[in-house]
Design brief:
Elements lengths: L9 E4 L6 E9 L3 H7 L1 E2 L10 E9 L4 E11 L10 E8 L1 H13 L3 E2 L4 H8 L5 H12 L3 H11 L2 H25 L10 H20 L1 H9 L1 E7 L5 H9 L17 E7 L2 E7 L9 H16 L2 E6 L7 H11 L5 E6 L19 E5 L8 H12 L14 H22 L4 H19 L5 H8 L7
Parallel strand pairs: 1-7, 8-10, 8-11, 11-12, 12-13
Antiparallel strand pairs: 1-2, 2-6, 3-4, 4-5, 5-6, 9-10
């Protein structure tokens, strides 16, 4: 973001690009009301109350021609999104009208906003902290009820409140250490090492809980990956089609039909899941099929949920398939064993499953739909998304995760220093670093480069 003057007045279209029923232009800055008045025919906007809407006409000052009938909503500083004077003009959605309005606003003294500049001004004026500002982008991009709920919680300050509580605990610990430093020559102890360590460990546990939530939080934000795996001809593609409710994958009795990755999404109880059909796992001399199996193994590594589809009559492949799955999956991934083809006579047997496979076992028929609803409920239960409510605090942002991880490393050094009876000088320095990294999350500690990187990913009108 370049050439920003914090006291000038900016404008942009705040609604999605293209033609629609209406579009909204946003003007923010000290001259927002005065500039809008130059092209406004109707009630004098300089005299109206804040948070009121007024019907009038937009006039091109250069030609004195009416551009459009519009609704002007006025927000006076500091009670606006940016903390500045703001006017929002609701116009008809013609792309030509939108572009002409921007031209007239610029000719009248405003300038085009940079990406994310409205929200950056909200952060600069103290309307939002940095986590709340970043949550605005997440809210706009939310594609499911779960991702929307997580973003709303963050935008309402739930994450910031948790960080403030952590910061208060660390400031208390820091104060005790600094007092000991101030009175080090007088042999005064303001808190025992045991008490200091207990407080540091409580801080560590909260940081650990927050960092541990990132895997689930990021998955909910982007769609939780669910890999359908198993031996060839077990019914994986049929299961994909049944879960999606459409024929996305080719189904055939010929082994090795699926060679490439097929992916689509479904929503279960408001949470988005990315369902991935993979090539059948087996030993093969076919080069193309081997590439497909390699890709399947890569997707198993990325999956949060693994559905292992088993044909109960194909017992010869179970141990080899289990070995491949266990070798590829992460420690956080949860496994569902779906014993398929239960609609076929003779498949009511229970195959001998590996004892070391930690999994939930279900009996289904991908062809008839038997057990599919139970499978969906199990996917949702194991994903960690079922317990999200308005009080859930979850890390979804990689920048936050990195800062929290570094802060956790610093507080670990504090605990180790207390155990080793190190001088308070060294312990206090590690604690200051912990506070610094937490401050970088909310924007208490930041740099122009960090702000530019964050807000450059926003849309122009936000």
């Amino acid at each position: 973001m370049t050439n920003i003057t914090p006291n000038d007045t900016i404008c942009a279209i705040a609604t999605a690009p293209g033609c629609g029923g209406i579009a909204v232009a946003r003007i923010s800055g000290p001259e927002a009301i005065a500039i809008t008045n130059k092209l406004w025919k109707g009630t004098d906007l300089d005299k109206v109350k804040s948070h009121t809407a007024h019907l009038g006409y937009i006039i091109d000052p250069s030609s004195h021609q009416i551009l459009d009938q519009a609704l002007a909503t006025v927000f006076r500083a500091p009670h606006s999104y940016t903390g500045e004077n703001v006017v929002e003009l609701s116009i008809h959605g013609s792309t030509w009208i939108q572009q002409e309005l921007l031209r007239i606003l610029i000719d009248s003294g405003a300038r085009m906003a940079q990406p994310g500049e409205f929200t950056r001004r909200a952060f600069t004026s103290g309307q939002l902290d940095l986590t709340e500002a970043e949550a605005v982008a997440d809210l706009i991009a939310s594609s499911s009820a779960a991702s929307h709920r997580v973003a709303m919680n963050q935008m309402r300050g739930r994450f910031s409140q948790r960080l403030d509580t952590l910061r208060d605990s660390m400031l208390k610990l820091s104060a005790l250490l600094e007092l000991e430093l101030d009175f080090s020559e007088e042999d005064v102890e303001f808190a025992s090492r045991t008490e200091l360590k207990k407080l540091a460990e409580e801080i560590y546990q909260e940081l650990h809980r927050l960092t541990a939530s990132f895997a689930t939080g990021a998955a909910i934000k982007d769609g939780i990956p669910v890999a359908i795996v198993g031996a060839t001809n077990a019914g994986k593609s049929t299961l994909l089609n049944t879960l999606l409710g459409e024929d996305r994958a080719i189904v055939s009795d010929i082994r090795g039909t699926t060679r490439d990755i097929i992916e689509d999404t479904i929503t279960i109880h408001g949470t988005l899941y990315r369902i991935i059909d993979t090539a059948g796992l087996r030993t093969t001399a076919d080069i193309i099929e081997s590439l497909g199996i390699e890709r399947a193994m890569a997707r198993i590594k990325q999956a949060r949920i693994i559905i292992w589809v088993i044909d109960p009559n194909d017992t010869d492949t179970i141990n080899d398939t289990a070995t491949q799955i266990n070798r590829a999956k992460t420690d956080d991934a949860r496994t569902i064993i779906a014993i398929n083809k239960t609609d076929i006579s003779g498949t009511d047997i229970n195959p001998h499953l590996p004892a070391d496979m930690d999994a939930t076992c279900l009996r289904i028929s991908a062809a008839t739909g038997k057990g599919i609803e139970q499978l969906k409920e199990t996917i949702h239960s194991l994903s960690g998304a079922a317990g999200i409510d308005e009080n859930t605090v979850m890390v979804t942002n990689a920048r936050h995760y990195q800062s929290l991880t570094t802060a956790k490393d610093c507080i670990t050094r504090v605990i180790e220093g207390l155990d080793a009876n190190l001088s308070c000088d060294f312990i206090a320095q590690d604690l200051r670093e912990t506070l610094h990294h937490l401050g970088s999350i909310t924007g208490t500690v930041t740099t122009p480069d960090i702000l530019t990187h964050i807000f450059s990913h926003f849309c122009i009108g936000k």
